[in-house]
Design goal:
The complex is a heterodimer of chains A (203) and B (326). Chain A has 203 residues and is mainly alpha-helical. Chain A has one domain (6-197): Up-down Bundle (Fumarate Reductase Cytochrome B subunit). Chain A contains 6 helices and 2 strands. A two-stranded antiparallel sheet of chain A has the order 1-2. The termini of chain A are close together. Chain B is mostly helical and 326 residues long. Among the domains of chain B are: 31-110, no CATH class; 114-247, no CATH class. Chain B has 13 helices and 4 strands. Chain B has helices at 3-22, 39-49, 77-80, 90-93, 115-119, 130-139, 171-186, 189-195, 203-206, 213-219, 222-226, 281-284, 294-325, and strands at 53-58, 63-68, 276-277, 292-293. A two-stranded antiparallel ribbon of chain B has the order 1-2. In chain B, strand 1 (53-58) and strand 2 form a beta hairpin. Chain B starts with a helix and ends with a helix. The chains are: A mainly alpha (203), B mainly alpha (326). Chains A and B meet through helix 1, helix 2, helix 4, strand 2 and helix 5 of A and helix 1, helix 12, strand 4 and helix 13 of B.
Chain lengths: 203, 326
């Protein structure tokens, strides 16, 4: 079943590469030390690459939002009001033990419902909460002159930074879980191939 | 929530942040009015030297003459009475002969005092280690120009200089004040060429390599990178040759930031104890790599290891299930 149009696949692969660059360079900036001047990559290089990748990511994110507004892909991210919590628990139970007992997937992928409840929740939190906060706080750090100078006596920049690194951290954790759950398809590699070819292979 | 509402919220949040950012609160200027015990004596000097023009009676011609005061000889009264030397009488440092007008031409040749002449060997100033400052200055690249006229006064104008960093509550103002001392010569070629035959230096171009240049210029002092740190004296006076200036980002952007021994030296004594490394920097600034929170670092490590642990256990269960299936 054809689920991933070309624009979405192109956005996804670019987003993945940018995420990796941003994580590596972000770690380099945060944990660099005089004794360990080249932690992952050097600080000066990390700054340049982080800024560049962040600007491209922001543009790419805007394309993602526009794509979701003008194509039917946006529908997949809409969380229904009824039974969402119970559906989420059902999905979690499946991942926790149902799949080891040979149970059928409670929410098989269809053209109408691409994401299971857990995917839907995490994708919405990641793409519509964490990424916008990451981008806004990133803009605040890139242009410190527009950031609040002080908030209750604490530097506005440090609060912006804490928000930025916290969102960056949670998105890094999301990426690890995302990559792992992508091995839970019909075969460990089938979901990865699906994102390359555009076709989803059902279990 | 639909996308329209979501976009509205993001837009409102952005406008709110910008509005807050633009609502800066500036500290009013220092309006201290110091009353000197030598006010009347000093006023005789300020009458002419306190303004750009002066007036005197030319007895030979028998008429009043107006003339422009040479800019190097102007001392603004307000600046003087805010300076470190505000309690002085002009004739404490200058010859008593200056009270006569017209001044004798020979007075121009008088030997000017240096900082160490008054501050050296005095118990009252022992805590500031003027002798060590003098030793550092003599090793500095500025000292090499002393024969060409360099002296303490080139940076520390005795009529206007005021101690800043250790008394300041506004670090930004201190940084601007201290950097202006350097820029006084380094961005004014007329003054610069009085001391050296070197070509004019374009500070902006020379620092092209520095990312976010404006932010650096307004948040750190020139001396942070251009002096050798000395913990025994309040402010380092050993100006290093340009080849030895700090160029590695990690010198400041790290847990052991050199800024803690320079710019934040005085405030760091009252460092906050809330888990932040270099916590004092947080009060006024933000330095990537230097501001880290030990608790957040630990928490993130625990979450990361927890996630990896869950994934490993999940993989083991999948392997076990597959082994049973086949």
């Amino acid at each position: 079943m054809y689920l991933y149009p070309k624009w979405l696949r192109a956005w996804h692969v670019l987003n993945a590469v940018l995420f990796l660059i941003l994580i590596l360079t972000g770690l380099s900036m945060q944990y660099t030390d005089k004794e360990n001047a080249s932690y992952v990559v050097g600080f000066a290089i990390a700054i340049k690459w982080h800024n560049f990748a962040a600007i491209v990511l922001t543009i790419n994110y805007m394309l993602f939002v526009i794509g979701n507004l003008i194509t039917k892909n946006g529908i997949y991210y809409r969380i229904g009001k009824t039974n969402f919590l119970s559906d989420l628990i059902t999905q979690l139970k499946y991942y926790a033990w149902g799949m080891f007992k040979g149970e059928k997937h409670p929410f098989p992928v269809t053209e109408e419902v691409k994401f299971n409840p857990m995917q839907k929740l995490t994708y919405v939190l990641a793409m519509y909460v964490a990424v916008p906060l990451l981008i806004i706080s990133g803009i605040g750090l890139l242009f410190p002159e527009i950031t609040i100078k002080s908030f209750f006596g604490v530097s506005g920049l440090i609060l912006t930074d804490i928000l930025h690194i916290t969102m960056g951290f949670f998105l890094s954790i999301f990426m690890i879980i995302h990559i792992y759950t992508c091995t839970l398809g019909a075969k460990p590699t089938s979901l990865f191939w699906g994102m390359i070819s555009g076709y989803h292979r059902s279990e | 929530m639909n996308f329209f509402k979501f976009r509205i919220i993001i837009l409102v949040a952005f406008i709110f942040l910008n509005t807050l950012a633009s609502a800066r609160v500036f500290k009013p200027q220092d309006s201290t009015t110091f009353v000197s015990q030598f006010e009347q004596d000093n006023n005789r000097c300020f009458k002419c030297h306190g303004q750009t023009k002066y007036e005197y009676t030319n007895e030979t011609l028998g008429k009043q003459v107006k003339a422009l005061m040479f800019s190097e000889r102007i001392v603004h009264k307000d600046d003087f009475y805010k300076s470190n030397h505000k309690s002085f009488s002009c004739t404490d440092c200058h010859s008593e002969e200056y009270v006569k007008f017209p001044h004798s031409g020979e007075l121009r040749m008088e030997q000017k005092l240096n900082c160490i002449d008054c501050h050296g060997g005095d118990e009252k100033f022992a805590q500031y280690h003027f002798e060590e400052i003098e030793t550092e200055y003599k090793k500095s690249t500025h000292f090499k120009m002393e024969d060409d006229g360099f002296s303490c006064w080139k940076c520390h104008n005795p009529h206007t200089y005021k101690i800043n960093v250790r008394n300041s509550t506004n670090l930004k103002e201190t940084i601007a004040y201290d950097n202006a001392i350097c820029l006084n010569c380094h961005s004014d070629f007329n003054r610069f060429q009085l001391l050296t035959d070197k070509a004019e230096i374009n500070i902006i171009q020379k620092h092209d390599w520095l990312p976010n240049q404006t932010s650096h210029f307004t948040n750190v002092r020139c001396i942070e990178c251009h002096t050798q740190i000395n913990n025994n004296i309040p402010v380092s006076h050993l100006i290093k040759p340009k080849a030895e200036a700090v160029r590695h980002c990690n010198e400041c952007h790290s847990k052991n930031s050199i800024l803690m021994a320079s710019l934040y030296k005085f405030e760091s004594k009252e460092q906050r104890r809330d888990g932040f490394f270099n916590g004092i920097i947080l009060n006024s600034s933000y330095v990537i790599g230097a501001n880290r929170n030990g608790y957040l670092n630990l928490l993130s490590l625990v979450i990361f290891l927890g996630v990896i642990g869950v994934i490993v256990v999940h993989i083991l269960f999948r392997i076990r299930k597959n082994n049973k299936t086949y």
